[in-house]
Amino acid sequence: MTDQARTPPATPRACPICGKPVEQAFRPFCSARCRDVDLNRWLTGRYVVPGREDDAEDPE
């Protein structure tokens, strides 16, 4: 038996925006709309990756 035969089938993923099944063309989203909603959230600052307080801004 090969390793591939022992690997369980991939579980269907849900779109992180709306929860619908993921479409391969828009992975990890279900549609271009949900992909654009996610991008907008990053661009408007709704999603933020926190940094450490001692991270210095560019001095220039």
UniProtKB/TrEMBL annotation:
Keyword Metal-binding applies: yes
Annotated PANTHER family: DNA GYRASE INHIBITOR YACG (PTHR36150:SF1)
The organism of origin for this protein: Bradyrhizobium pachyrhizi
NCBIfam families: PRK01343.1
Organism classification: Bacteria, Pseudomonadati, Pseudomonadota, Alphaproteobacteria, Hyphomicrobiales
Family matches, as InterPro entries: DNA_gyrase_inhibitor_YacG, Znf_NHR/GATA
Function: Inhibits all the catalytic activities of DNA gyrase by preventing its interaction with DNA. Acts by binding directly to the C-terminal domain of GyrB, which probably disrupts DNA binding by the gyrase.
Gene name for this UniProt entry: yacG
UniProt protein name: DNA gyrase inhibitor YacG
Superkingdom assignment: Bacteria
HAMAP family reported in the protein's UniProt record: DNA_gyrase_inhibitor_YacG
